[in-house]
Write a structure and sequence with these properties.
It is a single chain. The protein is mostly helical and 103 residues long. It is built from two helices and no strands.
Length: 103
């Protein structure tokens, strides 16, 4: 089954290359005619390229690092918020004990 799927994908890639050549020729003709025409260029979807799912480049790495940095910042802010709440609770308890002791 997978072999057939990859064969079909490879056939699609070959057809896309031929179409790309035809599109280049259309662009040349349009240039000579001094006209412009938007032409849809076929492409493979991500689901048709599962072997590239784990590939990354500098852009993806930068996005990952940005997300990771944001996650760490949010985790640190949450830790500080909880620490502040715990300190406030401890202070309240100490104040309550002191107030009871003075009576």
């Amino acid at each position: 089954f997978n072999k057939k799927i990859f064969e079909l994908r490879d056939a699609k890639i070959a057809i896309m290359k031929r179409i790309s050549g035809m599109i280049d020729r259309i662009h040349e003709i349009n240039k000579q005619l001094e006209t412009h025409e938007d032409i849809l260029v076929p492409s493979l979807s991500a689901s048709e390229q599962p072997e590239t799912r784990l590939e990354y480049n500098l852009t993806t790495l930068r996005k990952f690092l940005k997300v990771r940095k944001q996650e760490r910042l949010e985790a640190e802010q949450e830790r500080r918020r909880r620490e502040k709440e715990a300190n406030m609770s401890m202070n309240f308890m100490e104040d309550s004990k002191s107030a009871r002791g003075n009576n």
